[in-house]
User: Fold this.
Amino acid sequence: MTHYDLHCHSTASDGALSPETLVERAIQQGVDVLALTDHDGTEGIIAATQAAADTPLTLVPGVEISVSWYSQTIHIIGLNIDINNVALQSGLAALRHYRQQRAEEIARRLAKAGIEGALEGASQYASKTMLGRMHFAQFLMEKGYASDTKDVFKRFLVRGKPGYVPGQWTDLTSAVEWIVGAGGQAVIAHPLRYKLSATKLRRLIDDFKMAGGQGIEVSSGPQHPEQIHNIASLAKRYDLLASCGSDFHSPEQRWTELGRFLPLPASCTPVWSVWQ
Ligand code: AMP
Ligand code: MN
Ligand code: MN
Ligand code: MN
Assistant:
């Protein structure tokens, strides 16, 4: 059976592995089809595609777009996108520009809390184009403020904490339109991670479908079978295609691994059922 992992990150965003090493690891883990879905950029796609050439692995060009929806940050995955699409790339460029400004604000807030040099420190862990909270987490761990990623986020980088800046990303409709306009499929990433009420989640799905969205991540990384069952029934009720992916970032995060997540329930129609 073909093994699909349609969500992971490289050094082109906040992943620890280069696109080449990621492809190598995916093959070792038994993945047949891998989508590279870096946050707000596609810089790693060419290297990953080249690394996958002459291997059994199929590389799907993807992206994970940051969206603000009713003051919530929501992630929308684009699969099989044309990375040369101009509207998509100018949208992503604007998001990365905002990331840079947000990073400066995060650093200012950390400085007020007595932590100096965070912008320069975080930048050392990041690519030239994409600066994220994970890079601040790495800087804070280096300085001994926390010992693991989850801890550092909880203490410094989430709502109510010194380094938190409310996200002002793109709107849901634009993100979906960029993806669809670039020939791709839009998928709601890790729907349970936003902790939305059932009503709010249904509203998100309605807005998403109205914009042209087609899929939802039914299986993503460490989850209980019951959670997968619940999203699978949502997918069925709302006629959404089902996607799955590890959201792998780093070998040091022991709770995720490329290709490792529960299989999609038989009731699901997988996103790849409509691929050529
Ligand atoms: P950003 O898009 O820069 O705001 O950063 C979001 C990223 O931070 C996510 O994609 C994860 O990689 C990481 N992240 C967010 N929350 C946590 C957490 N509690 N523990 C570990 N990583 C997290
Ligand atoms: Mn991330
Ligand atoms: Mn995400
Ligand atoms: Mn992700």
